[in-house]
């Protein structure tokens, strides 16, 4: 059936449901924005309304100029960026191996990787802290990158493997017969075709690392190595919660994630439509 | 260009053997077709020659050199895949020049070679397009072009035409043959289409269940199939097979069919009296007559006009067989016909082993 053949009520229902879903999913974000621009004196006095009678950017100015937030922000960028890059590099190689090679113990390796995804990370906090502190990896961004990389590699490997599985083996075989080594065939033929997969993996790992709180909180106790989720908690003081500033910081924290996805969305969309062109 | 020698080559996946003891020697410039039913190991053998699959037993030599441990890139062969395997992110030109680029060919020389190959295959106007914008036939040509730009020791083809429609397949078949004429490169061509095999090959290698059944020229296989498998696999419409018993009373040898009918066979056939046999007779060798001239009788059950001739399905008392006739007479379904099976044209196989019974001509 072509789309024009469908009736108007169908489309009203179609978009109505979509709009409902989008409103539901985005409402918390909207509330974040609303609170972040509400001056403190109106926050509790105005009751529940969709937009404050007076808005201001005072919270933003404060967060940027008078708090440690820019530092947290920079730390988060470094940690998430390095984690995403490291994980994607490792996952691209291991995913390729998983997809193309049959080797002894492959089943065991897959099993072990699955097991790491099965139990709650809280269990690992104490042993990892014990391991890291003599190595000087607590209170350090490197320590966080190592932990995040370790936790994200298994899933990212499976993700990359599924992308490689989607690329016919014939292609690198043709390249190898054309005179390329396997690694060159991987680099020149397979990788360019996996860009959507790489973008998806980068995006996934980046956001996972960006919002990670547990280890960021447990392994780091000094402000100079804190990431922004930990930083957000600093707006909760003993006696009150500074909602306005916290929300402003939250909005600011969304920016890099949005930029990042804007950057890679070209590849993501291509990835989603890639299957549609074939045949 | 080079000869290819395959000696005692076997392949197993784990404990599962898929190729047994293949021996084959292919001369320089020869066009050899591997043919056989699906799953018989044709692709596996081809991929072993290409270096894409490990060799479990035996040796493969290209130009006299054992290549068992050599990486595909060092074997200097070209391969056309069934899926074409064109690099989707590269233009046709880049697809074709990739192998040259890897060898560090200067760019003027590269352009020249690619243009020449494109001209030969009628691809000039597509050089800057991406593979996905091409039709199946055009993609097939690009895949061919990719392998002819360099002068490899051998061309390997794995069912290169099976994704094309019948008309295009016929056309490309002719082009491949012409190309081979022109370039004279040793070629190994895998197909399960016996017409392709017959028309293209200098020699056909018929395979079944991981073993070579017969190697010979197309007409060898057609006229003297070494076993029942080759007889039934080669030829379209397929050969008729009748069950019977071989008898010899003194001078005269004949086969008695289940129905009690007998037919004379060549007295050179070497067989025991009372041996269970299967008799193969090609449809075009069945001599049909509507005027009752023949040793056997039957009734026309089905008529398949082919244009060139007509396939008649004839039912007799005990069996059914096909006859291929050239004359345009109007055969009606239900007509009684007589037919005879000329003794020299009969292929007699042992019923147990399926092997052709020897005749005096070859075993004096
Ligand atoms: N990786 C593998 N593991 C186990 N068995 C395999 C593997 N690859 C192929 N085989 C088996 O080897 C046999 C030969 O396969 P091959 O692909 O060579 O067949 P083919 O003659 O090319 O058939 P087709 O005409 O369908 O392409 C098949 O029975 C197949 O199941
Ligand atoms: Mg095959």
Any chance you could write out the topology, listing elements then pairs?
The complex is a heterodimer of chains A (279) and B (364).
Chain A: H1 8-36, H2 40-43, H3 58-66, H4 69-100, H5 106-116, H6 122-135, H7 141-165, H8 169-178, H9 182-193, H10 195-210, H11 214-219, H12 228-233, H13 243-277
Chain B: E1 4-13, E2 16-26, E3 31-35, H1 42-50, E4 57-62, E5 65-66, E6 77-80, H2 92-102, H3 107-121, H4 136-148, E7 154-158, H5 166-183, E8 186-191, H6 194-200, E9 203-208, E10 211-216, H7 218-223, H8 228-233, E11 240-249, E12 252-257, E13 262-264, E14 276-281, E15 287-289, E16 296-305, E17 310-315, E18 320-325, E19 336-340, E20 347-350
Parallel strand pairs in B: 3-8, 3-9, 6-7, 7-8
Antiparallel strand pairs in B: 1-2, 1-4, 4-5, 9-10, 11-12, 11-14, 12-13, 14-20, 15-19, 16-17, 16-19, 17-18
The structure holds adenosine-5'-triphosphate and magnesium ion.
Adenosine-5'-triphosphate binds next to strand 2 and helix 1 of chain B.
What is the CATH homology-level superfamily of the largest domain in chain A?
MetI-like
Residues in helices of chain B, as a percent range = 10-25%
CATH superfamily descriptor of the largest domain in chain B: P-loop containing nucleotide triphosphate hydrolases
Report the CATH C-level class of the largest domain in chain B. Answer: Alpha Beta
């Amino acid at each position: 059936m072509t789309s024009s053949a469908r009736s108007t009520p169908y489309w009203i229902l179609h978009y109505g449901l979509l709009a409902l879903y989008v409103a539901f999913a985005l409402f918390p974000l909207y509330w974040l924005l609303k609170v972040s621009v509400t001056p403190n004196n109106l926050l509790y006095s105005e009751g529940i309304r969709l937009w404050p009678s007076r808005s201001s950017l005072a919270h933003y100015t404060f967060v940027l100029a008078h708090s440690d937030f820019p530092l947290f922000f920079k730390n988060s960028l470094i940690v998430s960026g390095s984690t995403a890059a490291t994980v994607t590099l490792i996952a691209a190689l291991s995913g390729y191996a998983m997809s193309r090679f049959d080797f002894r113990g492959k089943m065991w390796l897959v099993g072990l990787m699955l097991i790491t995804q099965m139990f709650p990370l809280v269990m690992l906090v104490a042993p990892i802290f014990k391991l890291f502190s003599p190595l000087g990896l607590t209170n350090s961004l490197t320590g966080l990158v190592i932990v995040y990389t370790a936790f994200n590699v298994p899933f990212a490997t499976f993700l990359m493997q599924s992308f490689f599985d989607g690329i016919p083996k014939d292609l690198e075989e043709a390249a190898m017969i054309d005179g390329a080594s396997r690694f060159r065939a991987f680099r020149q033929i397979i990788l360019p075709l996996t860009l959507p997969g790489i973008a998806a993996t980068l995006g996934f790992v980046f956001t996972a690392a960006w919002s990670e709180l547990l280890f960021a909180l447990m392994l780091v106790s000094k402000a100079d190595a804190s990431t922004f989720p930990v930083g957000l908690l600093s707006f909760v003081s003993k006696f009150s919660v500074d909602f306005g500033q916290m929300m402003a910081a939250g909005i600011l924290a969304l920016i890099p994630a949005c930029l990042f996805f804007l950057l890679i969305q070209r590849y993501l969309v291509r990835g989603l439509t890639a299957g549609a062109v074939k045949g | 260009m080079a000869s290819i020698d395959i000696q005692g080559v076997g392949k197993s996946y784990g404990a599962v053997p898929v190729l047994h003891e293949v021996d084959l020697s292919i001369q320089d410039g020869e066009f050899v077709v591997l043919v056989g039913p699906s799953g018989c190991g044709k692709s596996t053998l081809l991929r072993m020659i290409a270096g894409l699959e490990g060799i479990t037993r035996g040796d493969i030599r290209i130009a006299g050199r054992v290549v068992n441990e050599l990486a595909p890139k060092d074997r200097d062969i070209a391969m056309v895949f069934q899926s074409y395997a064109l690099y989707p992110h590269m233009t046709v030109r880049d697809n074709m020049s990739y192998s040259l680029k890897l060898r560090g060919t200067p760019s003027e020389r590269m352009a020249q070679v690619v243009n020449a190959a494109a001209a030969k295959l009628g691809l000039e106007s597509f050089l800057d397009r991406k593979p996905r914008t091409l039709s199946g036939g055009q993609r097939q040509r690009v895949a061919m072009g990719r392998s002819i730009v360099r002068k490899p020791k051998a061309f390997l083809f794995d069912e290169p035409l099976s994704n094309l429609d019948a008309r295009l397949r016929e056309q490309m078949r002719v082009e491949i043959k012409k190309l081979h004429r022109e370039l004279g490169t040793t070629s190994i061509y895998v197909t399960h289409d016996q017409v392709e095999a017959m028309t293209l090959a200098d020699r056909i290698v018929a395979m079944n269940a991981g073993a070579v059944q017969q190697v010979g020229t197309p007409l060898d296989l057609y006229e003297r199939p070494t076993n029942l498998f080759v007889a039934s696999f080669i030829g379209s419409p397929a050969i008729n097979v009748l069950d019977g018993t071989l008898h010899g009373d003194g001078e005269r040898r004949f086969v008695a069919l289940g129905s009690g009918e007998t037919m004379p066979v060549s007295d050179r056939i070497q067989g025991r009296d009372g041996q269970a046999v299967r008799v193969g007779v090609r449809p075009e060798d069945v001599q049909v007559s509507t005027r009752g001239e023949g040793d056997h009788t039957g009734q026309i059950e089905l008529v398949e006009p082919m244009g060139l001739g007509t396939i008649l399905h004839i039912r007799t008392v005990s069996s059914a067989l096909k006859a291929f006739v050239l004359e345009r007479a109007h055969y009606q379904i239900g007509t009684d016909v007589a037919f005879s099976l000329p003794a020299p044209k009969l292929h007699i196989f042992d019923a147990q082993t399926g092997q052709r019974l020897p005749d005096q001509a070859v075993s004096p």
